[in-house]
Amino acid sequence: MNAVDLLFWLFAILSVGGGLAMIFSRHPVSAAMFMIVSLVGVAALFVLLESFFLAILQVLVYAGAVMVLFLFIIMLLDVGPEAGKRKLGHFKMGIFGVLATVLLVGTLLTLGNSFDSLALDQSIWPELSEPKDGPSQSLPFSTQVSSFGYGLMTKYMLPIQISGFMLLAAMVGVIILSKKTPGREDVN
Amino acid sequence: MMDWMPQGLWFEVCLKVFFAFMMVGAVMTMAGYSVLAERKVSAWMQGRVGPNRTVLPFVEYIPIFGPLLKKLGMFQPLADGLKFLFKEEIVPGHVNKFYYYLAPLIALVPALTTMTVLPFGQMYWNDGTVSTLALADLEVGILFVFAVSSLGVYGIALAGWSSNSKYSFLGGIRSSAQMISYELAMGLSLLPVFLWVCAPGSSESGLSLSAIANSQSGGAWLFLVQPLSALIFLIALFAETNRLPFDMPESETDLVGGFHTEYGSFKFGIFFVAEYAHIVIGSAIFTVIFLGGWHFLPFMEDPWPANWIGSLLGVGWFLAKTIFLIFFFIWIRWTLPRFRYDQVMHLGWSKLLPLALVNLIVYLLIVTVIDQNAAANL
Q: Would you say B203 and B112 are in contact if contact means Cβ atoms under 8 Å apart?
């Protein structure tokens, strides 16, 4: 076991343990803090894969922005440990249990299959180094930021635009929902 | 997987740890002395004398030099630190103990972590190669700074929440809202800078801080090219470091002490040092991005020779610019009154954010035109 393996196990335990602690902790603030620990652990795993850009985005977006908002709302509404006490009926619990089991088994099966069919040096995704049309020469795939940018602006242009459009729609929706029109009465 | 590490692994690690301690020492010393600068400058601006009594017993008797140091208050940071250490530590009975103790640490750690990617000079080696002086010159340096400093808000939010006191709570809530709001404008104000530095045809690429600093060598500093970006970044920097026109989290006129109302002795000291460390790092980053880093003056080649003397002078010049910016922070604090909370939010969301967007679009067009012209001339 070399140093990198040791670090991998450290951060893997940190992220999985943080996730479990998030689920089992009673207080919402503790749960949020454990989720941050878990997210930072995953970011550290990205660093071990030498994909610094993804790691930084993980910390910047999830740990630094999304979780701050979560914590903000938890504090603002002053949610205590007794907030999550609402019990589901046995029937609903059963349905959720079956669904979760199906998901878990499906994921394990898919993962097992893809590991069998792939050699270790092969990636699930096609290579980015294949020649492109256009003036610039083909970039070999690397962990460099410019490589990410090039991929996003050429091969993955459509997914980027679709997700951008969805974000825009969500933003417009939030503005409409939260804006109070002076003339209209509040529904509540 | 280990092939990128040289054989003497432990030697490398020890060396890195040594450098890291040096860097922490330098930044913490600067943070301590900016507290002194704050007191001296405010005294100067208000026609007072400021700290001029503290002195070590034996230094006092050195002729000329001793009384001068005493008059300048050079030992005041030492005395302040000792005071924080030896004060009685009071933990109020109504706090959430775990998070109450954790919060100062969470506030300090991001402030000290951002310095790892901060380049502060160039080393000219004997064989003619030039390397950047930094603990880790990451390719995505500026994003790293943003990511880590965005974690700093947890310290303040948790301090406010765990204190179980209304003033602290309001301070914590205000600070999280303020930091989220100004992070957007800050990030957007930097996008045109990267467009400019990494413009098609230029040799620089990536988001590294050293590439940005070196792109200003012998040419215009970026605050001359992009004054609006520099202004927005500076305002957002004031908001992110909770400095005075924006010190909502601890506005003492309406919140007693804000998020640290319930904190005393060394735990308060840690918050205090974290704030000044943020100022030092923020000033250094502004220097690197907009003020040419360690390069001499705009439109001039560095006048110093390309050897170790040049390296030292470059670092010194970088420090001089950073110290000027720290002075600027203090200057603003004792000049401007505090904003009201709704004014802070209004400024952030409906002034700075649209301004940063317009700025981005204008520079997009400019860079595109330059690029098209360059392509047509080929």
A: no
Give per-residue pLDDT as tens, B235-266: 999 988 888 788 776 666 677 777 777 787 88
B161–A29: do the CB atoms touch at under 8 Å?
yes
**What average pLDDT is seen over chain A?**
78
For residue B160, the chain A residues in CB contact (below 8 A) are 75
Confidence of residue A19 (pLDDT cuts 50, 70, 90): very high
Distance from CA of A78 to the nearest CA of B (A): 9
Burial of B328 (0-12, 13-18, 19+ CB in 10 A): middle
Query: Which residues in chain B have Cβ-Cβ distances shorter than 8 Å to A3?
Result: 2, 9
In tens, the pLDDT along B3-22 reads: 454 557 778 788 888 888 98
Interface of A with B in 16-45 (CB under 8 A): 29, 33, 36
Instruction: Identify the residue with better confidence: B202 or B29.
Output: B29
| Cross-strand bridge partners of residue B122 | B132
Kindly report the pTM of this predicted structure: 0.83
Looking at the complex, does the CB of residue A117 fall below 8 Å from at least one CB of chain B?
Answer: no
CA distance A176 to A181: 9
Cβ contact B39:B49 at 8 Å: no
- CA contacts within 13 A on the Cβ side of B184: 17
Cα(B89)–Cα(B99) distance, rounded to whole angstroms? 16
B157 touches chain A (CB under 8 A): yes
Residue numbers in B near A71 (CB within 8 A): 154, 157, 176
Looking at A107-116, B135-144, B161-170, which range is the least confident one? A107-116
* Chain B partners within 8 Å of A75 (Cβ): 157, 160-161, 169, 172-173, 176
Q: CA-based Rg of chain A, rounded to a whole angstrom? A: 22
ipTM above 0.85, yes or no: no
Q: How far does B211 lie from chain A, in Å, by closest CA?
A: 14
Q: What is the largest CA-CA distance in chain B?
A: 74
For chain B, what are the domain ranges? 96-377
- State the smallest CA–CA distance between residue B139 and chain A in angstroms: 8
- State pLDDT tens for residues B315-348: 898 999 999 999 999 998 888 888 888 888 888 8
Residue A117, C-beta contacts closer than 8 angstroms, at least 6 positions apart = none
